[in-house]
Design brief:
The protein is α+β, with helices and mostly antiparallel strands. It has one domain (13-66). It has 2 helices and 2 strands. A two-stranded antiparallel sheet has the order 1-2. Strand 1 (34-37) and strand 2 (43-47) form a beta hairpin.
């Protein structure tokens, strides 16, 4: 692993893409920011740092993507 920029002009291409797809609010502001990507490669949703990976909102979103 390596440390990469997630904001600004030097942002890693993934984070630049995510910001364009879901808007400026979807850009990480701190560690442990989460993105949900569908099997077809669509960026479906994002979850902020304090959101647990097992939070009901996250689980519901994952289940919805997997049921399609």
């Amino acid at each position: 692993t390596e440390k990469v920029a997630v904001t600004g002009e030097g942002a890693h291409p993934f984070y630049a893409w995510a910001g364009k797809e879901l808007g400026a609010l979807a850009k990480p502001r701190w560690n442990f920011h989460k993105y949900l990507i569908a099997p077809d490669g669509r960026l479906v949703d994002w979850f902020s740092t304090p959101t647990s990976p097992t939070a009901p909102r996250v689980l519901k979103a994952v289940e919805a993507v997997l049921s399609k």
